[in-house]
Specification:
little secondary structure
Length: 137
Amino acid sequence: LIDRDGKEHELTRGWLRASQRRLRGLSEPWEPVLAHEEREPLEPGKIYELRIPIVPTGRLFRGGERIAIRIKGADDEPPLTSLQALARNHLRRPRPACITIHHDESRPSRLDLPITRGNLIGTFFSGGDVSSFGLSR
């Protein structure tokens, strides 16, 4: 998220080791499910379609806010909070990687963002009544 003042806020993350790109049959267009059954090495110079699972999150976007996506080969910046440190429960890549994104008419790229109208489930975590979390105001 980029707020009205231009400050970046991380909402969620997603990870994919390209050699583990095979999907399970349970996958949906908005939620790829990785099989993790075997490694399939990449051939240099060959183009691959990759579907990167992103941890689901919810956010009400206000006027003037923008959505941004960052694609990197490693988590190289230190976590700013303990919550960020917990969210990064995978190994860091010790060497830099080169990423090329091919985007044209025959290879369209996209980011699927399910849009809902308001707080449909009514829970505390999605902005609903705090009593659903055992709290009172």
